[in-house]
Amino acid sequence: MPVEILLTTYFSIQHVQAAAYLASRATRLERRSAANSGSSNLDVAVKGYASSSLFTTAAFLEALANELFADAAMPGGGHLSPLDARASSLSD
What we know:
By secondary structure, this protein is mainly α. It has one domain. Helices cover 64% and strands 0% of the residues. Helix 1 (11-35) runs antiparallel to helix 2 (40-73). The two termini are 40 Å apart.
């Protein structure tokens, strides 16, 4: 008797965690940068963390949308199964 094991990874979770981490690093460095005014290295690091946080947030939103559509397309509705069938339907 064959056994099938399915593993689904939701990358939106990793993306949102990374975005939160990067934003907190940007905030921490921004405070340090304010105390050491004129430090261009800290300013570059703050901008790097902040822009990385924004890009990772965009990746989170795209991954979340893809995961919602993938769950809605599953025969049982995946994580959307508690919703009304019309709410998780892919058609109008």
